[in-house]
UniProtKB/TrEMBL annotation:
Transmembrane segments: none annotated. PANTHER family: ALIPHATIC SULFONATES-BINDING PROTEIN-RELATED (PTHR30024), TAURINE-BINDING PERIPLASMIC PROTEIN (PTHR30024:SF47). It is found in: Periplasm. Belongs to the bacterial solute-binding protein SsuA/TauA family. The lineage of its organism: Bacteria, Pseudomonadati, Pseudomonadota, Alphaproteobacteria, Rhodobacterales. Keywords: Signal. This is NitT/TauT family transport system substrate-binding protein. GO terms for biological process: alkanesulfonate transmembrane transport.
Amino acid sequence: MKSLTRRATLAALGGALATPYLVRSARAGTAVNVGALRFVSHAPSFIAFERGYFQEAGLDVNFDFFEAAQPMAVAIASGDTDYAMTAISGGLISLADKGVAKVIGGALTEEKGISGQKILASNAAYEAGLTSPAELDGKTFGMTQAGSSFHYMGARIAAAENAELKFKPLQKTGAVIGAIKSGQIDAWSIVPHIAKPLADAGAVKIIGEVADYIPDYQVTTVFTSAKTAADEGEQTRAFLAALSRGAEDFNAALVDKSASEEEQEAIVALLAAHIYPDRALEDARAPIVNGAMRINAGLSLNRASIMDQLDWFKSENLVKADIAYETLVDESYVEARS
């Protein structure tokens, strides 16, 4: 099994991901590159890095920062990035079908009783009557790319409301934020650490919860190249064990609140440096605390949710109809539950 070059990977996806949006951090002398978004959902990676869990596992980690999920999948397949944690996308599934990518664990999940991803309306759309997801028919819904998690969420919400949506691909998360603030799109769905500050600032309106439409949604997964999964078992298990320790610290501090107040503040400060490097701590605290969603203990994987997502991508002809769950997921690394 051989990784594709970045150019070959992009060509294999039909040129849909022409701009990878990769910004490698300035740290030098690394052995393992980890893909990340500056999202609270990537907290386990940042915690494992700062607390030395990766180092204890024998890994010298460098972060590759992205602005969307699909380009991260390209970087994994091409070998530029070793491990990553982000949403299932059509690009990732297609790369798995080509034998160059594998899901090896679960991460962020929607859980009843924990504030999760929000459905947003632009102020202009809200004033025109879009006050709940029931009024989504005919509206424009933002996403990064076709086949992204935003596309999946929007489609599932629309189907439940018997609505027709017009999807608008804007490539970067930042571009979607700009579009909904300016009223260029009507609606969007996004993690709470982005949704809540936008709403609190009066830039958008929250009109619903994704969990009401996609319960137990496995929002993000951990993945790597098929070559790494096949040939680097010891390294991969060490990575997952360190990442799992980071997830445990995160859940205790910000989800279950079972950690001490001192520990909670320490986790917030640690995350702020990675997620909001240009903000003062006092400005970063609220979105981090209010944006905490469950990371699966032990990075377990919700098999039923992954299969539902795979079935949707097939039904929309975004991936081949004969791709099997086992083609996408390597369950040898992690517990999977239905």
